Amino acid sequence: MNVRPISGASVGGRSRGRDRRLALIVGGMLLAVTACGGGDNPGSGSDAKAGGDKGATAAAESKQSEAVVTIAPKTGAKDVDTSGALKVTAAKGKLTEVTVKDAKGRKIDGAISADGAGWTPATHLAASTAYQVHAVAKDSAGRTAAEDSAFTTLSPQNTFIGNFTPEDGSTVGVGMPFSVRFTRGITKPADVEKAIRITTVPAVEVEGHWFGNDRLDFRPEKYWKAGTKVKVELNLDGVEGRKGVYGKQSKTLSFTIGRDQVTVVDAKKHTMQVTREGKVVKTVPVTTGKPGYATWNGQMVISEKFTVTRMNGDTVGYDGEYDIKDVPHAMRLTNSGTFVHGNYWGGDAFGNYNASHGCIGLRDVRGGYDGSVPAAWFFNQSMVGDVVVVKNSTDPVVDPSNGLNGWNISWADWKK
């Protein structure tokens, strides 16, 4: 009897073969998985260490700056004062940037203190103006903190402006100061003076001097150099000139100094010597103030020119003494009524004796039509800002505030 092999044994043999193959496959897969893991324990080795450092750096960078920036006034504030209210400070750090600008992008200059703890504006703010402030500070680790604010300044109920001379774009003589007369008396002169900036080409030191509380004149130590370009910035908008009264003027203007002409009148010799660039160009006979009405001594500046004008003694305290309706070629030297002018009624006084009520008279014709007479020549050769110096008169030196005549104050006293 034939016996068949046990099928299970045969199957079992085939299974063992397959198992060996499966073991090899699974082993290979495990090896591959292990190889992808780098063969090291998690968290060990150079790659893991680098990952740990990056994590620490990110954590450090995400830590908030210790610096604290404070801006006053705070966002939304209204009716803010134009001076003293704007302050920027930093605690536990130092300011690195402060920007203040209005809605038109115009910036307010300022300075960060040496210790970085505060910022101070260089000037006042304009009135009725919206401002934005952006400030940045760094702590000791170099981390930054920033703060912003937006506010609006007050709208003043009482204001002032400055009426000035010379006019924008004019050409004037070497003695012309820049003079401002304010429409309200000023009780904070330093703040107002700081709001007026004068620059020149070529550069020269220019200082201001107050006459009373409503007039401020600026000039250099000596007469201007011919050809000097003068630029004036009137930044009066928002400056508090007196309690509750604010400037409302913001203007930039310029003027040019013309040729150098200085005229010297000798009241004793009855002569006028005209110099141009330091050289004598002509000597003219004149008449000055008679006894009791002597002409002021000193340096005087031509402030106005009139081809013809009326002169009435009643306006200067000489009631009823004269009223001449057609004085030709007149140029003002003082506010009180001193002129250098043409004289058609003086007879033989010119060069011989003094006959006027304090003015400087030059021979002229009625109507001023003759361009060859001394008065017409001098009028045509002169401009506003030219200097006329009177000497050897019996009168005192003219008051510096009487006209544009601050040259009669020493430079040391001018700057006080």
Q: What's the average pLDDT?
A: 89
Which range best describes the helical content: under 10%, 10-25%, 25-40%, 40-55%, 55-70% or over 70%? 10-25%
Q: How many beta strands in the DSSP annotation?
A: 27
Largest beta sheet: strand ordering: 21-20-19-27-22
Describe the overall structure.
This protein has helices at 7-36, 46-61, 189-194, 374-381, 411-414, and strands at 68-72, 87-91, 94-102, 110-112, 118-121, 130-138, 144-152, 158-160, 162-165, 171-172, 178-182, 196-201, 207-211, 215-219, 229-235, 240-242, 245-247, 250-257, 261-266, 271-276, 279-285, 298-301, 304-312, 323-332, 339-343, 360-363, 387-391. It has 416 residues and is α+β, with helices and mostly antiparallel strands. It has three domains: 68-152, Sandwich (Immunoglobulin-like), CATH 2.60.40.3780; 158-257, Immunoglobulin-like (Sandwich), CATH 2.60.40.3710; 261-414, L,D-transpeptidase catalytic domain-like (Beta Barrel). A five-stranded mixed sheet has the order 21-20-19-27-22, with no helix packed on it. A hairpin with a 2-residue loop joins strand 16 (240-242) and strand 17. The longest helix has 30 residues, at 7-36. It is elongated, with a radius of gyration of 43 Å. The N and C termini lie far apart (147 Å).
